[in-house]
Amino acid sequence: MTRDDRPDRAAGGGRDGQGTPVGRRVVLGMLAAGAAGVATAPLLQRAYDSALGAAAQKDPTGLSGLLPGGGGFRYYSVTGSVPEKDAHHYRLTIDGLVRHRGGYSLSDLRRMPQTRLVRDVQCVTGWRVPGTPFEGVRLSALLDAAGVRPEARAVRFTCFDGAYSESLTLEQARRDDVLVALRMQDEPLAHAHGGPVRLYVAPMYFYKSAKWLSGITVTEQVEPGYWEDRGYDVDAWVGRSNGRDDAPTT
Amino acid sequence: MTSTPGSAGRTDATMPPRPDAPSAPPAERPRVPRFTRAEHRVHRATATLMAVCVLTAGCLYLPFLAELVGRRALMVTVHEWSGILLPVPLLLGLGSRALRTDLTRLNRYGPHDRQWLRAALRRRGGRPAGKFNAGQKLYAAWIAGAVLVMLGTGLLMWFTSLAPLVWRTGATFVHDWLALAVVLVIAGHVWKAFGDPESRRGLRTGSVDAQWARREHPLWEHEDNTP
Questions:
Q1: Cα–Cα distance for residue pair A119/A129, rounded to 1 Å
Q2: Most buried by CB count within 10 Å: which residue of A30, A51, A203, A211?
Q3: Are residues A34 and A137 located together in one domain of the fold?
């Protein structure tokens, strides 16, 4: 048998290689559907949110939390593992441009006047948890107690995960809705949520609310934090930064 | 095999007698070449990249994995790069004639493919197929399109200055939901492969049992037929 006996082979694949190009149409159809999905997403998202919101209320399995936009908090950590700290060995230090450097144990912080705030939590990756209570000491109270020097302009936060850092201008740090939080959802702050102590910056995207807070340093200028070194905005107001237009949380 | 006698007959007629068949030891059943080394490598590389992409996606997205693994910045970087490299093995593989021929086979659908799909949907026998059955063809085209959509929406999310905000919100929405579909479809693909060791052997070693080929792919005129 010679090649000439099989003219169909020239097309590649014999009779297998003939017929309607449905494969190509499926690929192009997927591209068209993808583009249509991007275009109609706001509409679909709204319909889905209202449907899932109702369903998730009655979902005993919690599986709806795994669906995209399924609500609830997501756990983000920038390190492999984070040591656990409890009331015995937790310590928050304050240093930098202050008159009285010092440290606070968990019970020291618990003895100070507590403020409770209930706001939405908005993550820069899109998820939002409505009406979440946070409770703790106003950061301004800690700064006042330490005595900020006149040349200070900013505050830097470090964490006992060993990697994360954050920063605020002094003006932002003194706001009423910026807490050193000890409780969340009316319970002691769990390790997975950044416990025993985390920062809570209500008006900003949630990456500003550093988990596992262990150090407060008053500085001369703003030093960009972990995610800010990786392209996120330093002034992370919800709805007015990072190219997003979420509804403000305060 | 319940394919039409006409097409099956023609396949048989074009198959030359195998001169070596009687002398072969009885334990060795005849095998026919199915995939070349280039195709094997393209599949291996694509599968590896896809696995890395899906696993890192899980570490970014599923709370229990995120809690276990952490290292968010690293996971993001690995996810982005494995995703962007996903089409590269296939593009490089286009240099192989065998792979191009198989792409043509995957693209073109004949009447037997319609028959295969109808039988599969009704869970009936009688599913005539060429080198690839209609299910494999649909899978190939769907996943190729899905990867391109994931790539496009992923780039929109990665390079935030590329497009206006509404596009990006839409891209996130499509990326999330299509990811779910991709995981389910790939799970189906792997499940089917697990159920058919001979087809896996075909990809791994390049050849398959001739009887398996006649049973599963009766209309396949394999390269063995031509001298």
A1: 9
A2: A211
A3: no
Residue A213 resides in a domain: yes
Give yes or no for A31 touching B (CB within 8 A). yes
Say if CB A15 and CB B130 are below 8 A apart.
yes
CATH of the domain at A153: 3.90.420.10
Residue A60 distance to chain B (closest CA, Å): 17
Is residue B172, in this structure, part of any structural domain at all? yes
pTM of full prediction above 0.90:
no
Which residues between 198 and 217 in chain B have a beta carbon less than 8 angstroms from any beta carbon of chain A? Answer: none
One domain, residues A170 and A66: no
B36-92 tens-digit pLDDT:
999 999 999 999 999 999 999 999 888 778 878 888 889 999 999 999 999 999 999
pLDDT in tens, A127-157: 788 889 999 999 999 999 999 999 999 999 9
Compute the nearest-CA separation of B74 from chain A (Å). Answer: 8
**CATH number (domain holding residue B173):** 1.20.950.20
Structure ipTM over 0.90, yes or no:
no
The Cα–Cα gap between A29 and B33 comes to: 33
Domain carrying residue B113: 33-220
